[in-house]
Amino acid sequence: MDHDERRRSITAAAWRLIAARGIDAANMRDIATEAGYTNGALSHYFAGKDEILRTSYEHISEATDRRVAEALGDATGLDALRILCREVMPINEEKLLEARIAASLWPRAMYDEQMAATNRRTMDNWREQMAVFLEQAREEGTVGDIDVSIVVEQLLNMMMGMQILGVLTPGETSAARQLEMLEQFVAAL
Description:
The protein is an all-alpha fold. 75% of the residues lie in helices and 0% in strands. The chain contains 8 helices and no strands.
């Protein structure tokens, strides 16, 4: 196993701990145990817990962006917009796991400049993609005369809210309910 693989393995262990027991459970000793390493061995791959958490946060964004890119194919307009949203929304176990981890790390991202920068890049990327898809939809005649920047912010806020509520109140914010909200929102455009 090479250096990068070991870093990914340690990051995955941190993900599992955060998702199962919260960010406080992600101490170096427990991360090492979960990853199958000694506590001291982690220092060969990460400078400390903060670096592991930053890497975990980056990996969540990268995983979502990879899924979006793979799922998009040749989709444009509202079809592409729906795909992007569904890849962010916690509508299956994988995405719910990522939402749990992201929600656990958001408080740190408010004060950690590197995590804040990761968050800004991700949000800016999603905003840009949504704007392109909405402009395509306007050109295709599938939306009315909308203020694209406002619609993008509404949609982004709705998806972030779904991540929080999908984790905290999964019964009320079920996958079916999330998909229904998305479809009603898009239909109103």
